[in-house]
Amino acid sequence: MLSVPNWSEGRHPQVEELAREAMAAAGVQIHFNEADPDHNRIVTAFSGNTNQVRAALFQLCDTLLPLIDLTTHTGAHPRIGALDVCPFVLQQQDGMTETDALAYVEAIASAFAEMYQVPVLLYEKSERGRHAKDLPTLRKGGFEAVQGKEIPADFGPNRPHPRWGVTVMGLRDPLLAVNAVLPIEQYELAHTLARVIRNARDADPRFHGIRAIATRLPEQCVSQVSMNFTKPDETSVNEVVQWLASRGAKVLRVELIGVVRESDLAKGSVLDYRPEQIVAP
Q1: Over the stretch 106-153, which tens digit does the pLDDT of each residue have?
Q2: Which of 128, 129, 162 shows the shortest CA–CA distance to 146?
Q3: What is the mean pLDDT of the chain?
Q4: Where do the domains of the chain lie?
Q5: How is domain 176-279 classified at the architecture level of CATH?
Q6: Does domain 2-171 have CATH number 3.30.990.10?
Q7: Cβ partners under 8 Å of residue 139, min gap 6
Q8: What is the pTM of this model?
């Protein structure tokens, strides 16, 4: 089982070290562990057997949640919770059916909500028909938009936690999280290109299933077109980056956030990645 929890803390000086220690204590394979001060976010990714993955997640919760207070949190990345989104991805080696995996994720969601008193919204394959299933819709308006409102929680309280907000959790298919990094002075162009991709994602096969936003990162003096390739078997990172360049973008590098399957690398040769980010299908 693979999990890629995203946490709303990227400025604590020891956050990466603390997260790595928490994951290592559970015995999982660590694929990714990077904080970003502009986004004020750390993305973790790890895999292992179901007991190890569950243990790693709760170790991380005990370690990172006390560091986070969304009432004072600022950052470039959209967020609705301290543990903002927690996807699980079933791998072929797990020997589980999708039905078993869905039950596994629901058990974790229930335990998390009860332990930390944070409402959980199930998304993607786990969503039960009670609310939207896609992350952008569930997270629209961020933490501030849900204050004082009832939440159609699948687990936990029906109001957001005062410091930790709401967590989105569920089983999903593999995706690629990619940042095309541009000079900071090209932020307006990045914004325009991200909008074009969003508007064309249903009609243009090059952009099928791609979610895109633009961000400005002043600490790093760059801007980004941040993209989630939700249908990586049907789209090409290389082709999209070539399109960005053809529209005037000066692409400095193409970051992979999280993990990649080996089968995605042929169409993603422009990606900047490390060997540990490659995961089993």
Answers
A1: 999 999 999 999 999 999 999 999 999 999 999 999 999 999 899 999
A2: 162
A3: 97
A4: 2-171, 176-279
A5: 2-Layer Sandwich (3.30)
A6: yes
A7: 78, 79, 80, 84, 85, 168
A8: 0.96
